[in-house]
Amino acid sequence: MSELRTSSIETRGVPGKKRYAMVIDLRRCIGCDACMVACKAEFDVPLGVFRTWVPYKVVGTYPNVKKQFLPRLCNHCDDPPCVRACPVEATFKVDDGGFVLQRYERCIGCKACMASCPYNARFMLPKHRTYTDITSVVDKCTFCHHRVTQGLVPACVQTCIGRARVFGDINDPKSEVSYLVSHLPTQVLRPEEGTKPHVFYIGADRNLSEHGRAVYNLPEGQEEDRKSFGAVRI
Which of 164, 161, 168 is nearest to 182 (CA)? Predict the structure, then answer.
């Protein structure tokens, strides 16, 4: 898998290419935060910032109330606005796999990528870290690129006690993520942004429609907008 080749085209459905995705089954999520703890341990994520987090809201009418959890992380979009926004090409998309990654040595901390991300998935690394001196640059979820390239699943997937998170190559029709997205009603967050996110939710409230899948049918207007930014290269 080439880490240094950036992708200016979609990676989903491209023959011979892998396209990793995550499916989060909200019917199974119990809000235990094990995923968040595993992520913090894996990456030395400082207090106060998160690569993945699990917000919730309380729904219903007393006494019949319950919590609805919605695990969040970088959506590793096929058309990531953060890549287009970065003035120094510190953010890039891997050609094979679809990972959206960060070059810390190039990041100047301008926060343009943070402003462009519709999922609020990016944050500035504070100065207090335990095991590394990488600070004062933007960070985010990487789909555990270092683990996946070694044949492992992301730390959050590994630790999920309810198996609410499923990870794999959506371009592989035999993979579990491909089966779930193809056979179950799934939703993506903020599909109106046209970013083509690759974190899919089962059981999320998206007005009981198929709008979440329609985002992959690229309108001409969005295509022209994407081209206006130019292809991202190194």
Answer: 168
User: Tokens 């295509």 sit at which residue?
Assistant: 223
CA neighbor of 231 nearest in space, from 4, 17, 6, 3: 6
Name the one residue in this structure whose structure tokens are 């200016």: 8
Report pLDDT digits (tens) over 48-94.
899 999 998 888 888 999 888 999 999 999 999 999 999 999 999 99
Q: How far apart are CA 95 and CA 93, in angstroms?
A: 6
| Residue 168 β-bridge partners | 21
Give the separation between CA 208 and CA 227, rounded to whole angstroms: 32
Question: Could you write out the DSSP letters of every residue in 180-218?
Answer: HHHHS-EE-S-GGG----SEEEES--STTSSHHHHTTS-
**pTM of the full structure:** 0.81
Nearest to 7 by CA among 198, 203, 208, 211: 198
Contact status, residue 8 vs residue 165, Cβ threshold 8 Å: no
C-alpha to C-alpha distances, 129 to 77, 104, 111, nearest whole angstrom:
28, 15, 20
Q: Bridge-partner residues for 93, per DSSP? A: 100
Report the half-sphere exposure of 62 (CA within 13 A, side-chain side).
Answer: 0
